[in-house]
């Protein structure tokens, strides 16, 4: 288990704003730029695309129409270039939803619960529940036993999972991993029930918490199954791991409470979305708690994007288990290739077992970082090898990196940083460890 | 001011799950079906579109491709019919985003703060900030003074607004209106600061809380401006009111803290979204509070849909103030027409001043309710007259209603309900009040 740190946040039924972020464990899982100062870019106002009022004769001259078309054409070109040079974030940018273009004209909204019919008829619940059933099968829970919905993003899934945990255990203590070697059970001697966030692939290093060990330790520490609630945050890797041989299994056959996974990451989707599944018995607790508001709404958001379920449904149908398996194998193979090539070039690099996230020495040229859209933290950067990342793209990246890097370190004054603390001395190629 | 009820929820820094719904004032503003029992439709599993695994020879036979195409074609036909017969929810279903089809191939994600550049390059912040600036102009706040973002829906905006209020006043008491005649200031004698949700158009009746009277009463009750925080929930009507003559004005020139408005309602958008604006000084409080997580993230969600800002930017550019003004006038005109025609036909009906939401006697035939996708509560139903609702559509609806209704009440045993308590006796056409 990677670095499960005790974070004994006392939870009674009340949660502060700060906990929003705590719950979401977005500190680790969000796409934050921990390594450099973050500055409010107020200049965005000057570089942004201003909205201008139409003029009276616009319809006749067509000037505005032409202006808009040119803005969009330039923007599209920029998106193509940015999509081409992207390696840092765990988004599969390779998808073809051309067949769904015909649906973009509709205001599809799955407001409220996927399983409760709303009077609003322009929805896509039939696709949403089809997708949820697919995940219920994947995570081994009966249709009559689960409840779930398609979220707007990973944060919403985590928020929901931990909220359900708190409803089940109003006096519970929340444990979440940090990337360091504290024990998660530091506070386990207290008699409070435990709410635990298990990472299925951490953001920066792609490390997987050992679910089985967490459960075993809970049981050894005397927690019966009615005294703990486990939320599995599977953001990226939750959908890859089922297709990796020898990987531990996330399944509702184990005593877990909920699982969330992102839809725009491994699967690929034009907009962010996610899948959230929990046990029916838990959501009933949540629903009854809000019933005094005449609401059976169990989702966090009210209006909900009805296009996202169709995108996911389409991909699942087209690719299926076998398709995902092939893509996962390709990603892992390409990740090994990248890690080996980096090490061959004398660059510190690590690849966690089961992961396609290659962690390596942070390039010191910020232009280079931005050009390849690398996510960085301190002295490390990472490339997340997704299905759209080919060997050719990795070669382009590697060649450019090796060439540029030779200029960064050409005079001996500046030396590549030691990142042994982050990736282990056996993976570090600094002057000391190489 | 319509029915501002004291809802003295004691807020310390901690908020329970229940408060999620409270804050969002979704009890009133959500699209809930208060009038009839809500049943978990587990049969959805049997009517849903199952995901099936591709077969080995699919690529050669083209069978699956053909199956998918036929599912989508049937679904599209259904969407067209459902869009055609829709009156109940405040969504403008009339939009043409054909020009943006070219962007659906990209995974556009504005993760995190709109004003902080992320390394992920496939974003649309330039459009997002253009849209936010437009709203800042509308609501009269300097670019350097505001912070805001485009949300996933109205709930997220309300959640964010009230969270900011709580950060400003950790010991504040939250007041929100209910549709009844209690006073909002029942608990005002307490010395706690006040956090107030002001409805700019309630969901069911389209009534507008009197912002000026709320501020005046706060001041008369001895609340200085540093002791209250007002969030304006402008879900639908927040974008219509600026274009209604004699309507009270929502502006940051008044001592308000935040405003939210939906993007898929009056503006129209394929997916739900919203706009959230607050004062820069407030968001700085929120940001610094989460900084110990190495996060400057001030939005509720992490990954954020990058297509929504482009849809809004496109509509604002095309329609502008004048376009919206014309559409608002058309909506109000058509709403008056509907209300008058209902009353002429002897049907209880009410139209709040400034509103395009026509409240009337609930049709007793649930098939009819579903066919026209009416939102109902108790004995009342409503039609929200949006830009896509034409006189022709209203005539179709009216003719069908009058015809069917004559059969519902043909024998004298069953009589139309009295709804005077909901809409006032002067608007009620029941046996007693007509």
TrEMBL record, chains A, B:
It comes from the Eukaryota. Coiled coil: none annotated. Pfam families: Pyridoxal_deC. Its cofactor is pyridoxal 5'-phosphate. Keywords: Decarboxylase, Lyase, Pyridoxal phosphate. Transmembrane segments: none annotated. PROSITE patterns: DDC_GAD_HDC_YDC. Belongs to the group II decarboxylase family. This is Serine decarboxylase. It comes from Salix suchowensis.
